[in-house]
Amino acid sequence: MSGLSALFYKEMLRFWKVVVQTVVAPVVTALLYLLIFSQVLEEHVEVYPGVSYSAFLVPGLVMMSMLQNAFSNSSSSLIQSKMQGNIVFVLLPPLSYLEFFLAYLGAAVIRGLIVGLGVWAVTLWFAPWQAPHVGWLLAYALLACGIMGAIGIVAGIWAEKYDQLAAFQNFLILPLTFLSGVFYSIHSLPTFWQAVSHFNPVFYLIDGFRYAFVGHSDTDPWLGLLVAGACFVAISAVTLALLQRGYKLRH
Amino acid sequence: MSQVPAIRVDALRKRFRTTQALDGVSLEIAQGEFFGLLGPNGAGKTTLISILAGLTRADAGHAAVMGHDVVRDYRAARRALGVVPQELVYDPFFNVRETLRIQSGYFGLRHNDAWIDEIMHHLDLTPHADKNTQSLSGGMKRRLLVAQALVHKPPVIVLDEPTAGVDVDLRRSLWEFISRLNREGHTVLLTTHYLEEAEALCGRIAMLKSGRVVALDDTKSLLQLTNEHCAQLRLDGDAVPAVWQGRLQRGADGSWVFNFGEYAELENLLADLRGAGIRVTEMQLQEPDLEDVFTDIMKRA
Ligand SMILES: Nc1ncnc2c1ncn2[C@@H]1O[C@H](COP(=O)(O)OP(=O)(O)O)[C@@H](O)[C@H]1O
Ligand SMILES: [Mg+2]
Prior knowledge:
The structure holds 2 protein chains of 2 kinds.
Chain A: H1 3-17, H2 19-41, H3 53-84, H4 88-91, H5 97-123, H6 134-158, H7 162-178, H8 191-197, H9 201-214, H10 221-245
Helix pairs in contact in A: 1-5, 2-3, 2-5, 3-5, 3-6, 3-7, 3-9, 5-6, 5-10, 6-9, 6-10, 9-10
Chain B: E1 7-16, E2 19-29, E3 34-38, H1 45-53, E4 60-65, E5 68-69, H2 74-79, E6 81-84, H3 96-106, H4 113-122, H5 138-150, E7 156-160, H6 168-183, E8 187-191, H7 195-201, E9 204-209, E10 212-218, H8 219-225, E11 229-235, E12 248-250, E13 256-260, H9 263-275, E14 280-286, H10 290-300
Parallel strand pairs in B: 3-8, 3-9, 6-7, 7-8
Antiparallel strand pairs in B: 1-2, 1-4, 4-5, 9-10, 11-13, 11-14, 12-13
The complex binds adenosine-5'-diphosphate and magnesium ion (MG).
C-alpha cells in the first residue's frame, strides 16, 4: 500500500464512519426539495416540451448534492485536522503534494458520487424513470465532483477557523449552486441574468448533467464539457501549486 | 570512513514575523546517541524539530537526517525520522489500532500488524486497541503518539517534551522503552523540561537560548562546568571562626550554608572548626546537578 492509498482509505473511512451525517442527511435534504418544489410547481411549469417538472428537477438536485458534498468532504476533513492538530500525521510521512492532492480529491469525488447516487435512487420513487445517457452523466458527475473536491481542498487549507469555511460556503458555493438553474431553466430569466449565468461554471455542470437525463439543455453540452474541463484543470493547477509551496500547512 | 551523522543541522535560521526563533544553529548528532536538547520556553527547540520533520521551512541553512537533506531528499529524510510532537494531538475518527495501521500505510507499510502489536504491547496500549482515541486519557494519548512515531521503525527518534503532564509510572515505562530502542541502535533526540530526566538519560546535551546554541557537550563535562558544591552544616555554637565569616551564610533555620569549589576547601573549614572547638552536629552535601548548570548557563548567555 503506497502512502497515497493509505491516505485515500483514511479519508473514505472518515466519512463512512459518520455516514448518517455525510450521506443520509444530504439525501434526505434533496428529497425534501423534490417533494416541496415538484408539489408546488408540477402543474404550472413545463421547462422543456414533454418533460415534467420533477423529471427536470431531479438531475439538478442530484448535481447540487454532489457539488456540495464533494466540497464538504475535503474542506471539512482538512479544517478539522488543522483545528485539532492531527494534520501533522499526514505531514510527517513521506507523502508528496501530488499524493496529498489525489487522496483528498479521490475521497471527495467518491463521497459526491455516493450522495448523488443516493439522491437519484430515492427520487426514482417520486419522479418517472428516465434512462440517462451514461457517457454524459459520468463525464459531468466526475468533473463536478473533481472541481468541488479541489475547491474544498483550497478552502480547507486557507480557512483558519470554522466560520471562515462557513463564509466560503455561504457566500460562494451556495449562491453559485442555487443561481445555476437547479430549479429553473435560465431561459426563464431576463436576458441580463441569462448572460450572467453563462459566467457561472456551475451552470454548465447542471445544464450538461441534466442533458444526460432529459436530452434538452440550455447550451451545447460539448461547450459545457469544455468549460468544466478547463475549470477542473485550472483549479487543480492552483491547488497543486499551493500544496507544493506548503501554503498554510508547512510554515 | 566515519558514519553519516543521524542528524546534522548547519547554520539554521528561522524567523516568524518579529521573532527570530532560530538564529544560526549548527549541531551534529551521531548515530546511536541519546541526545538532549534543552532550553527555556520559546528557545526554539520545537522550531528546530519542525524543520527536521519538514513541518517548517528554514529561512537559511541546511538540515539532514541520516544524510538525507530534509528539503531536497524529503522522502528518505522523513522515512528515517519518527517524531513525537509536543502537542497532544489525535484523530477522533479512529481507534488505536486503526490509527496505527493508517500511520503505517502513510509510510507504505501494508502488513505491519506484528510490529504494531509489539509497540502496543511495550507501551501498554494493547488493552486499549479498540478504543476510540477520543476516549483515551492524556497519558494514553501520549503513548499512542509515541507508537505512531515508531510504526516505520525509524532509525532516528525525536521526542518533543514527551513527559509533559504524564504521571510517574508512565514516565518510567516510557523511558525504559525508549532506552531499549536506543540500546538497539536507534538515535534519540529528546527535549524535556525535567532536567533530572535529561541528566539521567542523555549522553550529550545542547542548550538553546533565543535560537542560539549556548552550550553543547557531554553530560558529564557539562556537570563539571559548575564545580559549585554546597554543604549544609549544623553547628553546636552560634559563631564561626572570624576567617570563615564571609564564606558561610546563615540559613533561616539556623543552619550554615557553605558553597565551595574544591573539596580541599571543605577540609580546611572542618579543620578550623575543630581547632576552634566547634562541633559539627549535622552535615549534608549537595553535588551540582544539571539544574545548577542550566541556570548558570542561561544566566550567563
Ligand atoms: N508558527 C509560529 N508563528 C509565530 N511564531 C512562532 C511560531 N512557532 C514558534 N514561534 C515562536 O518562535 C519562538 C520559538 O518557539 P518554539 O520553537 O516553539 O520554542 P520551544 O519549543 O523551545 O519552547 C517562540 O518565540 C515562539 O513564539
Ligand atoms: Mg516546544
